[in-house]
């Protein structure tokens, strides 16, 4: 085999000093690629160092170390980036000059090294191109270090196992190395690293090459990492890359698209749309947005539902896929280990060895108290957005089973609250979206006794009952409609009575098993605005406090007010900023006509996204914004994260005041506002029933006008109220 050679005219370059390898890496400068159930996380160099990064397949790390060295040194980093469609990762590097034993320069630092990588069909493809900018031929000593530890995702996250399966000795071939592992689940897992040329030396954990590059020339080495051995080549690389880009292009074109007058704002929307497409996996039941990379690259109930709600106005097909998947795996039995009860909707599913062996309950786990009411709410919202009566009819039994579970749990207390208390010690201690062990507490910091009624969960329950009442009425079932309407009002009244803190003009975080309020001000209360539960007067008080300095950091809404005792801006849930949480706050403010506040929150999130290279992470620290400062990254946040990406579109909908009535086949726009610095926005191919229209928003003086574009398929009434 021979290395591909390309002759090019190049300009001289200057060698850069080596980066301190021991320095900590910035988490938001790691780069993730994904296709279906396979993903890779590496640093800016393209290296996998074996901490939390790696190549993962079905919740197992199949490549735990993969590093490039030139002349026994790390190359110097020039820059790294992802393509706009999230398919290609590129690292631009250069070699360090080396000095021979006689004191002369043995290897000049004039070689540009370009690593280009992508994932396609459970396989990592990579091209390393060496461009020689010197006036003489160079001989590059190149070494790859590699290993595969086949650790389960939960082991990578820190869980200790009492025993593991058998790791076989690596098989060394002429152009490949094969790692094998026999799991305790009797599944054989294999990872093959193959090169396009024969290494000069190949060992179980590294391969060495002497790569000759003519002056002013470019040479490329190809490699692949997969379950079986293939022969890497330029043709295979290009063909697979083309298929990957075509598949991603199809995903990104689903639903309506948005264009604005702001170039940087457009860059943000483009990146976030690409992130959602990257995380969306095509399952048998339809598209499903996996939660986030690296820790949560799987189907989560809560995350999938909220991501679908964020994108519902633009792409209802995502909600349909989420609903179909969750309905298929709705619980039909009681299991203490799985926290399952009939009618309950799944919280999380995993495919790794530990899940299969039931060392942990997360193979198919139901310990999420909010997932079931959110699922019902999404089903009702999808029906209102699309008017898809046929799908609603097919989902009806599942929706009724979910409501049945909610009513059964609610009957265990006089208020009808849906509460949680984990069934087994292996399950999650807290089961709302703030599910870390210290996320729910009393004002003095003590942990409350269960069962726990979370404030936002009661809001979701209220919305689910309301939605089902409306659907039952459309189906001609007046008795069920009246019953669920009464249940909604019962919950509303109980929340207003039991959760309200009159001395603080705010809703309590939770009510514990002894009926005591967890009397702290947290962002959870804002979720009540999202579903429209509070009175206008109380909503005004919540809105004012959300935008106060105690809760709003300048970058977004904190999960906890900074004057509460357990506040910690560096914590996971007790003072950090979660973009999806801020987006739900914004949508709630919009429901109560607080458009100016919505614009403020959207601007804060956009400015944070710019600082994070157009990608909002799962969360970031809740420090108060200061002039000239950037938001502080959270060390192990997922990036990308589906509901963080989707938050941009939820906030934009709140800003524009768009509501689509699928039953009437009409668009309603109420008091639209445009983001700061944006003079016009066009939404193209917005589906309303069978019709597709372009919707235009234009700033005219101090007003924003909305009108249908000239291009449309079918007639759609547009009602605008300024």
UniProtKB/TrEMBL annotation:
InterPro entries reported in the protein's UniProt record: 6-hairpin_glycosidase_sf, 6hp_glycosidase-like_sf, GDE_N_bis, MGH1-like_GH
Protein name: Amylo-alpha-1,6-glucosidase
Originating organism: Mesorhizobium opportunistum
Domain Mannosylglycerate hydrolase MGH1-like glycoside hydrolase, chain residue ranges per copy: 305-609
Lineage: Bacteria, Pseudomonadati, Pseudomonadota, Alphaproteobacteria, Hyphomicrobiales
Domain annotation Putative glycogen debranching enzyme N-terminal: ranges: 33-223
């Amino acid at each position: 085999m021979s290395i591909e050679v390309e002759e090019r005219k190049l300009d001289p370059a200057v060698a850069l000093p080596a980066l301190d390898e021991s320095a900590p890496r910035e988490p938001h400068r790691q780069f993730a690629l994904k296709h279906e159930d396979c993903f890779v996380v590496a640093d800016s160099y393209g290296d996998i160092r074996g901490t939390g990064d790696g190549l993962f397949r079905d919740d197992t790390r199949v490549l735990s170390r993969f590093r490039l060295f030139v002349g026994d040194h790390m190359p110097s980093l020039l820059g790294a980036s992802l393509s706009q469609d999230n398919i290609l990762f590129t690292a631009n590097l250069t070699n360090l000059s080396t000095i021979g034993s006689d004191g002369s320069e043995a290897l000049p630092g004039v070689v540009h090294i370009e690593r280009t990588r992508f994932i396609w069909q459970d396989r990592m493809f990579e091209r390393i191109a060496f461009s020689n900018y010197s006036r003489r031929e160079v001989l590059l000593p190149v070494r790859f270090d590699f290993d595969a530890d086949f650790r389960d995702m939960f082991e990578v996250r820190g869980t200790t196992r009492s025993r593991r399966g058998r790791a076989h000795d690596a098989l060394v071939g002429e152009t490949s190395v094969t790692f094998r592992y026999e799991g305790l689940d009797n599944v054989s897992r294999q990872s093959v690293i193959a090169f396009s040329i024969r290494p000069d030396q190949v060992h179980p954990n590294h391969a060495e090459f002497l790569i000759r590059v003519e002056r002013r020339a470019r040479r490329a080495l190809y490699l692949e990492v997969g379950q079986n051995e293939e022969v890497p080549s330029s043709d295979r690389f290009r063909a697979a890359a083309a298929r990957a880009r075509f598949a991603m292009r199809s995903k990104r074109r689903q639903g309506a698209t948005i264009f604005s007058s702001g170039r940087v704002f457009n860059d943000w929307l483009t990146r976030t749309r690409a992130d959602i497409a990257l995380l969306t996996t095509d399952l048998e039941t339809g598209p499903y947005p996996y939660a986030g990379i690296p820790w949560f690259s799987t189907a989560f109930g809560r995350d999938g539902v909220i991501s679908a709600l964020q994108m519902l106005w633009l792409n209802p097909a995502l909600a349909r896929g989420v609903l179909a998947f969750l309905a298929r795996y709705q619980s039909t039995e009681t299991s203490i280990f799985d926290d399952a009860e009939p009618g309950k909707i799944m919280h999380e599913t995993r495919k790794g060895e530990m899940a299969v062996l039931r060392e942990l309950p997360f193979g198919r786990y139901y310990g999420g108290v909010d997932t079931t009411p959110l699922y019902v709410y999404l089903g009702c919202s999808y029906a209102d957005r699309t008017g898809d009566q046929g799908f609603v009819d097919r989902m009806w039994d599942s929706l009724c089973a979910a409501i049945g579970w909610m009513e059964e749990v609610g009957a265990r207390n006089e208020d009808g609250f849906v509460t949680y208390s984990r069934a087994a010690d292996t399950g999650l201690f807290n089961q709302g979206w703030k599910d870390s062990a210290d996320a729910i507490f009393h004002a003095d910091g003590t942990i409350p006794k269960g069962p726990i009624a979370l404030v936002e969960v009661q809001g979701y329950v209220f919305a689910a009952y309301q939605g089902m009442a409306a659907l039952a009425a459309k189906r001609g079932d007046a008795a069920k409609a009246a019953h669920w309407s009464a249940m909604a009002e019962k919950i509303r009244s109980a929340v207003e009575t039991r959760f309200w803190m009159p001395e603080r003009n705010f809703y309590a975080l939770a009510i514990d098993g002894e009926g005591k309020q967890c009397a702290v001000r947290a962002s959870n209360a804002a979720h009540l605005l999202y579903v429209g539960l509070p009175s206008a007067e109380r909503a005004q008080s919540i809105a004012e406090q959300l935008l106060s300095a105690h809760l709003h950091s300048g970058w977004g809404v904190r999960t906890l007010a900074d004057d509460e005792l357990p506040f910690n801006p560096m914590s996971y849930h007790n003072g950090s900023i979660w973009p999806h949480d801020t987006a739900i706050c914004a949508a709630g403010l919009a429901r109560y006509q607080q458009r100016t506040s919505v614009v403020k929150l959207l601007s804060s999130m956009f400015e944070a996204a710019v600082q994070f290279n157009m990608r909002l992470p799962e969360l970031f620290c809740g420090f108060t914004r200061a002039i000239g400062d950037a938001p502080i990254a959270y060390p192990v946040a997922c990036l990308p994260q589906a509901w963080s990406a989707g938050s941009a579109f939820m906030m934009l909908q709140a800003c524009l005041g768009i509501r689509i009535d699928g039953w009437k086949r009409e668009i309603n726009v109420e008091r639209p506002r445009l983001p700061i610095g944006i003079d016009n926005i066009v939404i193209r191919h917005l589906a309303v029933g069978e019709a597709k229209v372009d919707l235009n928003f234009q700033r005219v003086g101090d007003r924003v006008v909305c009108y249908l574009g000239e291009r449309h398929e079918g007639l759609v009434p547009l009602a605008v109220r300024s």
